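call fold(seq) -> tokens
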Amino acid sequence: MKHKHYLITFLLTLLCSFYAVAQNTTGYLYEYNIPYKSQSKDVYEQSRCKLDVYYPKNVKNFSTIVWFHGGGLEGGEKFFPKELLDKGVAIIAVNYRLSPKATNPAYTDDAAAAVAWTFNHIQQYGGNTKQVFVSGHSAGGYLTLMLGLDKSYLAKYNIDADSVAAYFPISGQTTTHYTIRKERGLPLDLPIIDNYAPSNHARKDASPFVLITGDRDLEMSARYEENAHLAAVLKALGHKQTELYELKGFDHGTVVAPACYLIIDHIKKYSKMK
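ret:
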């Protein structure tokens, strides 16, 4: 187990409300509000299923991070984490449908569609499809876990979950998400491990997993312990690329910034391995 301390510079990037391309002064381009489920006829699905792209200009074969925001599957908006900007990688910031307007597994299906869009389009921007990473915080961490362990979601869009270079869930629930329990009238204070629990789909042949949480004494209830349990299960199954980080001194919200620095360090490592 590894414990690391990082400085917090936790500022959110303001997002534009229009679909346009904008250039900043550091050699990066942005595209906003790109539909990734263009065939949908559902109004709510059309409005939520959009993503933003941030990528280095005039660069080839860069790595890409697909980023899912938090908010308990009931709230939140896509954004580019500041700590991931200007690091030589592309970021795909994704909106997905939210409960109660949508119910399980709509948000996970949306997440899969966004990752599939990335594989199908990132080369047009200069990206390398062998260097696509998936990450997210809290609810976004849960979506990251589900996509990486339950292969059925990405398979629906003709993408092999194991073609993702690595998964970086931050403070994600590894049991069935409490919003899914809420939708089904199940107790919120008792863990459920069913088909919608990432732990229930642990596999030894999955892509690398870097599980990140805040301090167990500051995190949401049992969040570190759930991730520690998943790490133990994966290792017991023979998964050889499982890492678990407890970032001491950081709570559920403040863990995002240091986690992003950790993710960049790992992407550099994985890129050298390819």
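Strands lie at 21-23, 28-35, 50-56, 62-68, 90-94, 127-137, 166-170, 209-214, 242-247.
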